[in-house]
Amino acid sequence: MSALWSVGAGLLLLLLWVRHRGLEAVLVHHRWVFVCFFLLPLSILFDIYYQLRAWAVWRLHSAPRQHAQRVRHIQEQVREWKKEGSKRYMCTGRPGWLTVSLRVGKYKKTHKNIMINLMDVLEVDSERQVVRVEPLVSMGQLTAYLNPMGWTIPVVPELDDLTVGGLIMGTGIESSSHIYGLFQHTCVAYELVLADGSLVRCSPTENSDLFYAVPWSCGTLGFLVAAEIKMIPAKKYVKIHYEPVRGLQKICEKFTEESKKKENSFVEGLMYSLDEAVIMTGVLTDEAEQSKINKIGNYYKPWFFKHVEKYLKADRTGVEYIPSRHYYHRHTRSIFWELQDIIPFGNNPVFRYLFGWMVPPKISLLKLTQGEAIRKLYEQHHVVQDMLVPMKSLEKSIQTFHVDLNVYPIWLCPFILPNNPGMVHPKGNETELYVDIGAYGEPKSKQFEARASMRQMEKFVRSVHGFQMLYADCYMTREEFWDMFDGSLYHKLREQMNCKDAFPEVYDKICKAARH
Fold first, then answer.
1. Which Enzyme Commission number(s) are listed (predicted)?
2. Which residue of 182, 192, 337, 368 lies most exposed, with the fewest beta carbons within 10 A?
3. pTM over 0.85
């Protein structure tokens, strides 16, 4: 009873302090208070609800039976929109704050919202080595479902809450992408409800133009209702080799060299300054040295990027065996390194042991509760950007990131980009090795100004025939946007399928210049 009184007294004092300081002041200057006491417990409740729901669906095997009915409901909504005169564009009815993107689309308030409640795994076809899923299935949900069966997918983008639909309509990448390409390149078929309410399946051999146009289209060609994704056999561990490298030229040479080796199941780099990095290579295995097993995903373990930094500080190489699922979601607990700006003491051993089991807070809840003051603060003094550039331009690109942003750590992730039709492909006629350069945090560059600096970055990326991930803030004009992306197939299909009255153009949906 005395413990309850203590907790109650503590909460009362906290509420009095919040009232004294003002809620907005606390949210801006002491955000960790709100996150630790409210968002973390709420995030746990969210997780429990979705896990129980997934378990119930699995036990009842209801997903395949209900899928057709749910798709028919989507078709009915689209046909109803047509009967009403097609007066407004359509979009999914999923609230903007639920997406992992930092952007909350204003278009949700003006467009016709089509409710899409599709969040289940539909079928695992071991013979074809394909899993069929609905678009709102998350990466955490999918790996938890497949791994006990001995399967995984070739590209498992980092964060648990990333959905299949978002990774197809936008894009997704992982440290295995130097072998398999982007997430879209591991998909073998899509099913969509089109602007006329019809249901269509597309693949490389069936409605192939649509199949290649869907990725990066951000839901502006139709509503994704199912996807088929390749599977590969899962193994118990990833054997990781850590190697600190110093000097920008040596970093780029080593990273490029390892990215070209197909015997590496995984390749990743973390840069802690302009001339300091740790290059990691991994191999899937079922055997492990017991003394070197590191269950990095356990709640009390150090955040992964901090763990990696120890090898740099000690200036030594190392080898560990990380359980596969822990490896796939190694950056989840710290949201890469973004959580250190929200909970500065989050990697402290005391916090990890007492409260680490509640981390991370849901990104969707962080967005929902950020308020206008925090939104503006983040927009002007914070960057979350992924730029995809040819590997041959890596050194020049890192120097540009350093001058314009000066944000560290920087994430390096290689990927192979095939010369397929669609919005994103190499400049030449052959497959090319690219790299994702991820910058997440507060820029230390003295001349940083959000709009001007990002426009300069975008100009550089266009000049090397690179691409900007569309979840992030984009400041390009329409002409600049279509200079970066190949819109030929996309625009042809929008004309053929009567999408112009049904969906906004992708530029109008994602670019800041289109919204202001």
1. 1.3.1.72
2. 368
3. yes
